Amino acid sequence: MNPSPAQTLPPAQRNRNRMLLVLIVVLFLGSAVVAGALRFSGWRPTGMQNRGELLDPPGDLRAHPLHLIDGGSYEWRPAERRWRILVAPPRDCAQACVELSQQLDLVWQLFGRNADHVDILWAGAVPEGAVRNPAWRLVEADPALRATLPRIDGGPGEADNGVPAYVVDPNGFVILRYAPGFDPGDLRSDMAKLLKLK
Predict the structure, then answer these.
(1) Minimal CA–CA distance to 184: which of 113, 91, 117, 109?
(2) Running along the chain, 198 residues long, what does each successive block of 10 average in pLDDT?
(3) DSSP label at residue 11
(4) CB burial class (10 A; 0-12, 13-18, 19+) of residue 167?
(5) 189 by DSSP, 3-state: which?
(6) Rounded to an integer, what distance in angstroms lies between the CA atom of residue 37 and that of residue 43?
(7) What sections of the protein cross the membrane (predicted)?
(8) DSSP output for 20-36
């Protein structure tokens, strides 16, 4: 009877082979355990994190029909894959709203060819000097709409002189909130990722 190849190896070589096999198993299982721990702890790579506050649960605007100020209603039409930036400022908003309109216009222009897939919904009167662009849709400042938007009048520790902005998905769900005085670059960054989901 001929000895098997494993029996012909010197004991030192056999031990190295066993250690190599154990090391491969440990690396495979160890990386799976680490990945699982990171996943369930909520950690995400920096590039995957959103800059705005993720609303959980999201607000549902589908039950609140939006009426355009110039007549008619604003339809959600999910099949069009249109995203919305929604702002519902208070009545006495003046200079803060003018600045916000300038920031939203700049963000919209930076979308480039994807700008056609974004509407800016402005609820209520537009202050004198506000910048408007083709994406603007003026809707009535409905109390039911304002009640659906989380912390519409600001939250603890937020700027008193600003207005929050919201991102609404194509189906009519409010998914992200940006606190008053937010950085427009954060909104642009999040929207750029969402527009790739078309």
Answers:
(1) 109
(2) 62 82 81 70 58 87 86 87 90 84 91 89 87 89 85 67 86 92 89 81
(3) H
(4) buried
(5) helix
(6) 9
(7) 20-41
(8) HHHHHHHHHHHHHHHHH
